[in-house]
Amino acid sequence: MPITSVSCVLCGAPVEDIFHSVIWLQKFRVVYTILQNWNEARLSGIGQRRQFEDVIPLDDSVDADLPGINYEESEIGIRLMVTKFGGKYPPNPPLVPQPAWGFPFHSSCLEILSVACPIYGSCLDLQVIFDLCRSQPYKHGPLDWGHDYEGLIGPPRDIDLFCPGEEPDLALANLKTDIYTHDPLDVPELRRLFTDSIDFYVQNDASATYEMPTIYSTGGDPLTKLPTEILQMILTWMDSRDVANLRLVSPVYASLVLPDRFWFSRFWDGREFEYVFEANVTHSAGRNWRQLFQKTKLLASLPSMANRKRVWSLAHHLCDLINCRRSYNSCNGEKIRTLFEPNGAPNSDHWVTAGPTLYAPTEQYRAGARSLYERKIALGSTWKNIYVSTVKIKNRRYVSGIRIVYNNEQSTLFGYCNTDDGANVTWGEYQQLITLIGFHIAFDSKGIRGIRILSSVGELSEWMGDWYDLSQRVLVLPTHLPPQCLKGGFDALKLVSLSISNGKDTSPASPSPLHHQHSNLQETAIWHGEIPHKELSFLGPHNTLLKDYRDSLPFSLLLFGGVDGTQLPHLTRITVWVVDNTELGMYADRTHIWGLEFSFSRPVDGKASILLGQIPDEGLFNSEIYHMDLESGLGERITGLEAFYEDPTFIFGLKFYTNRGRAIEFPPSCTDQLPRDEYFSDILKPEDGIIVGIYAVLKHNDVFRSIGVAYIPSN
C-alpha cells in the first residue's frame, strides 16, 4: 500500500492503490497544475497509486523541458494534497523532481459532480474547484471542508469536553461506516430499472400531459374551489412528507388520485430521490412512474444507494460553492504581492490584523485558514453607507466582502462583492457613520464570520453576519487614529483576515498579550464571546519562562465580582476541580486544574454559582474537589493569584491570596511534592485595584493552559 494516505476531495473516502480489491476506489483523476502555475488548473486522465509514487497520464501541454518530465514515458509522477510551497525546484538529490501536484477525485465521484452541476454540463470549472481545494486544510487524508462528509467521519470521542473556541479536526481513523466501499455511480439495480446507458446531460424539461380524474365535492374544504389541474400541480412541487400531511387535513386531497406526473416529480431536484439521476435522463412518456418510485424505494436500503445519496449531497454542496465563486467577477481591491500573486504591489505598510490563525504558503496547511489573495483599499473620510456581503457555507455564514458608498455615490469594492451586493450596516442612536476608528471582528478557525464598526464617538454598529459564541477581537490602531487603509486576506470564497493601517506607521507594535501588565488587553487579545468592558484592567502571565502557548485559542472571562464589584460581598465559596494523573504513572504530568466555580449567597443573574472550565466526568477521570470559603460579607476579598507550572503549556496548581493574610493552595501542598527547580510560578497581584474576575485559555485535554485576573483600578 502507498506510504501516504489521501482521500477523494468530494466523497472523503480513501483513494486506494492498484492492488486494492475495490476497483472503483483505485480509479481517480486529479485537478492539478504544474509548479507555481496557480491559475492553470487542468484535469488529468485516470491515475494510479503505487507504493512509492502516484502517477497520471502525461499531458501533451506539459512543458517537456522541466526536470521530472520525460516525454518518452506515458505518465508522470504527481504529488497529491500538497499544501506547502516555495521550496527549491528541482530539489536536491535524492529527492525526485515532481512538478505536477493537485487534488484527487474518484472517477465515479467526478462524474456524479458533473451531473450535479448541470449548469456547466460536463465542463466543470476546474480553476474554481482547484482554488476551493487550495482553501481547505489537509491533515490525515480528507480535505477539511468543515463537514463530516455526510456522516462518513465521526467526531472525536471527547468532543463534549471541548472548551470555548476549540474545533474538532477530521481524522480518517474515525470512519463510521463502510458504505463508502460501494461504487456510488455504478448501481446495476438502477441501471436495469431505468436504462443501460447513462447520459450525463440533465434534462430539465419534465413536462407532460395527463388525463386527470374527477374530484367530487367534499364539504367545507376551501380547496374545492381549485381546479383539479392546479391541485395536482401543487403536489408536484411539495416534498412527500408535506404531501402526506396535506392529505391528512384536506378531504379534497385525501380523495385526489395522485397522477403519474407526481410520482415522476419524486425524482426531481429537492425530492427524496433526486440522487437517482437516471430517472431524469430517460423519457418520461409511457413510463409507469408510480411503479418506478416503489421499486426505487425498495432499492434505497442498498449500500451502493446509500453511498450514492451521500456523494450526491456532497456534490450539491460543492456545486453551491462553485456557483458562489462564479457569481463574483473577481476579488476586488488592489492586489498585494504574495507567493500566490507575485505580480502584485509590494506591501510596505504596517498592519494591525484580526482573524483566525493564517498559514503562510511556505507552511504546511493542517488547520486554520489560508489566504490565497491579499487585497488593499484606501479609506476615504466621508462615507454614505457601508454594505457587508456574506456567504453561507453549510450552516455557517462568513463575510465575503465589503462595499463602501461615498457621498458622491461612487463605490469601492473590497473582496468578493458586486456593485449591488451586501446588507447595509445599521446603527443605534447614530444613523450614519461619523468617522471609522476600527472594528469588532468575530471569527472561527476558517474565517471571519461577523463584523461591527467602531466610530470615533465610541458607537458600535449592529453586527453584520454571525457573532454569537465565537472568538472576537477589537481591531484598532495603537494610536486610536482613524485608519487610512484596509487590507484583507481572502481564500476562494471569503474573508479570512482583516487588517488596518494608517500608512507608513512607525509606532511600536502592540504588546504581546502574554506581557500585558500595563497594556489594554481588551484590544490586543482574542476573547470568547463578547469583548470585555472598558472599565476592566487585566494582569496575566508575565513570567519570562512563559511563551505564547495559547495557539489561536481565545481567552474566556468569568466575572465573579461584576464589572463594578457589586457582587463581591455575596461571594461565599471557591471550588476547584483537579484531575490527578499520578495513579496512571504520569508523575511529570501529575495534576491539572479543570474547573473553578464561584458560589454566591444570593443568585447572580439567576444563578447560585458560575463556572470557568469544566467539571471532570468521574467515570473517565480521577478527580478531586477542593473548597475555599470566604467571609465576603465581612470584607474578605481575593487580592492575588499564583499559578504553578511544570510545563509552560498547562497549570498544575493554584494559590489564592486574600486581604486577611490567607494563602490557600490547590491541590493542597501540591508544590511540596516537587523540587523547586522542577517548577516555576507566576504571581498575579495588581498593585492598585480590586480583583473581580478570572480569565484563562482553556483546552480540553488539560483545560487551564494559562490564567490571569481582571480587576478594577482604584483610580
How would you describe this structure to a colleague?
This protein is α+β, with helices and mostly antiparallel strands and 715 residues long. Among the domains are: 23-181, no CATH class; 361-509, Vitelline Membrane Outer Layer Protein I, subunit A (Aligned Prism), CATH 2.100.10.30; 527-713, Aligned Prism (Vitelline Membrane Outer Layer Protein I, subunit A). Helix content is 14%, strand content 28%. Strands 2-1-6-5-4-3 form a six-stranded mixed beta sheet. Strand 10 (383-393) and strand 11 (396-406) form a beta hairpin. Helix 2 packs across helix 10 (303-326). The chain starts with 22 loop residues before the first helix and ends with a strand.
Topology record:
Layout (H helix, E strand, L loop, with lengths): L22 H4 L1 E7 L7 E2 L4 E2 L4 E4 L17 E6 L19 E7 H10 L9 H9 L53 H6 L34 H9 L3 H10 L1 H5 L4 H6 L23 H11 L3 H24 L7 E2 L16 E3 L18 E6 L4 E11 L2 E11 L4 E5 L7 E2 L11 E9 L2 E9 L8 E2 L5 E6 L8 E6 L4 E7 L19 H4 L2 E2 L8 E3 L15 E5 L11 E10 L10 E14 L2 E7 L9 E7 L8 E8 L7 E6 L4 E4 L13 E5 L4 E11 L3 E11 L2
Parallel strand pairs: 5-6
Antiparallel strand pairs: 1-2, 1-6, 3-4, 4-5, 7-9, 8-19, 9-18, 10-11, 10-13, 11-12, 14-15, 14-17, 15-16, 17-20, 18-19, 21-32, 22-31, 23-24, 23-26, 24-25, 27-28, 27-30, 28-29, 31-32
